[in-house]
Amino acid sequence: MTVAPIEQTLRSRTFAPFSGARLRGVWFDAVTPIGHFAGTAAIALSLPLVLLGAWSLAAHYELVAPQILPGPPLVLETAIELAASGQLQAELLVSVMRVAAGLLIGGGAGLAVGLAIGLSRTTEAYLAPTVRAVLLVPSLGWLPFFMLVFGIGEALKIVMIAKACFLPMMVNSFDGVRSVPHKHREVARMLELSRLDTMRFVVMPAILPSVLNGLRLALSKGWQVLVLVEMIASAAGIGYLMTWGRKSFQLDVVLVTIVVIGAVGWLLDRAALAVQTHATAWSSRSAG
Q: Which of 94, 118, 154, 207 is a Cys-bridge partner for 176, taking CB atoms 3.0 to 4.6 Å apart?
């Protein structure tokens, strides 16, 4: 009388992981993230696909002159040719190196000034109004002056990018320092930490989210200014390639560079956002 219940219990425990309900649950857990990603990708690609379709129709029926709006097949062929020859990668590498140099110089200076005026009311009173007034002048307004001072060589591009990267880093660093909770400073005083240790263990971790957000904004601004200055005064870079295509009436080259500039800018922003999210994950966990 007791064998059947025992056998039934063992069978249920042995095959429980393979039961229909359990398998459906495992399948649902595995498929849900894939379905969510596919749905997000479909939504993100919907507008580009609509624009691509409108572009194809306009080019096919010559609603716009082919000299002005070449069709997608010709643009794709040009992109493949530029990539195969290595010219596209070479020009893009020049541009990326310029942005890296400008971000390092301008971003580093912006971080230093933001910390200085954030930590000292006296420094803020003397320095902040002038710095903000000078840097709020648009980049195009400074271009003629910078061209006279630095010429049209490589220094001009680096200075323009550094100028664009400086303000976001300065503002976000300043805001980060001023938003450090007062209780954190009180704890540092209670522990009798030195000024250096207070900066290292209290201020810098607290302002990290603001600094990384400023870095992301600075990268975006630097990339935009880079393309602008390369179009005006440059003999290399992705912006120069766009200008060369326009001057030689090769609108397919212009469209290729537009797509590349947008795609690379988006990738740089996503990379900066990923770094920011990973580096500041602890703040969201502590807040929760």
A: 207
- CB of 178 within 8 A of CB of 114? no
Asked if 172 and 214 count as a contact pair (C-beta separation under 8 A), the reply is yes
Identify whether the C-beta of residue 261 lies closer than 8 Å to the C-beta of residue 130. Answer: no
Q: Is residue 6 part of a domain?
A: no
Q: Give the structural domain span for 199.
A: 72-278
CB atoms within 10 A of CB 285: 8
Provide the number of structural domains found in the chain.
Answer: 1
Q: Return the number of other C-beta atoms located less than 10 Å from residue 250's C-beta.
A: 15
Q: Cβ distance 226 to 237 under 8 Å?
A: yes
Round to the nearest angstrom and report the end-to-end CA distance of the chain: 55
Q: What is the pTM of this model?
A: 0.72
